[in-house]
Amino acid sequence: MISAGTALDRLRQGNRRFVTGRAERDIAAEHARRRELLEDQAPFAILLGCSDSRVPAELVFDQGLGDLFVIRVAGNIVAPSQIGSIEFAAERFGVRLVVVMGHSGCGAVQAALEQLQRQTETTSPNLGFIVNSIKPGLSHLLENPEGPKGRALLDKAVRENVRRSANQLRHGSEILEQLIRENGLKIIGANYSLETGEVDFFDGFD
After folding, report:
1. Both ends of the chain: CA-CA distance in Å?
2. 165-202 pLDDT tens trace
3. Within 10 Å of residue 5's Cβ, how many Cβ atoms?
């Protein structure tokens, strides 16, 4: 079993390789690895990220088959299916690190801000569920008329949304709460920059 700290180090090192263009993964190695994983898997980290096509976790962290247990949903929101998936991986595979990762320019977060500012609703109840899951964590950002605007507001909102999702995981599941207390599970928040490729781990550190 890999500790949360060791798992985080592996992610940081992988992202550094990605940013500097020194990724180590190659197709031949992954082909062989696929055969090794037929019977079981042992991911070292769980990642709840956005579905945005520009943020594939395995590439961003220079990891291969079987390394990451990835859940992707627009706006990296937390709902029962995401919680259940994380509970499953944490219990079944003994994963001790959960990363909730947002990204710059997130369209789902932008849509939530726009609805808060214009008092409108989406026409799709399914998309509405995603946006409405994000909005409660952002409303306080609009209370100060002198607060950030434009891109600065969106950047702040993305981070607030990550913090909210991470806190929902820390305090919304008896299984995860027990794993945190007794087994060293760590849930942290991160933000990926589309501009630089860098991942900033910024939430959940004691």
Report:
1. 22
2. 999 999 999 999 999 999 999 999 999 999 999 999 99
3. 12
List Cβ neighbours of 6 (8 Å cut-off, separation of 6 or more): 44
Distance of alpha carbon 167 from the chain centroid: 12
Q: Where are the alpha helices (DSSP H) in the chain?
A: 4-19, 27-36, 57-60, 80-93, 107-118, 125-134, 150-171, 174-183
* Amino acid in the structure at residue 57: A
* Token pair 């949903």 in the structure block, residue: 73
Q: In whole angstroms, give the CA distance from residue 138 to residue 112.
A: 8
The contacts of residue 71 (CB under 8 Å, 6+ apart) are: 46, 47, 48, 49, 82, 85, 86
User: pTM of the full predicted structure?
Assistant: 0.94
Q: Provide the residue type at 171 as one letter.
A: H
> Is residue 189 helix, strand or coil?
strand
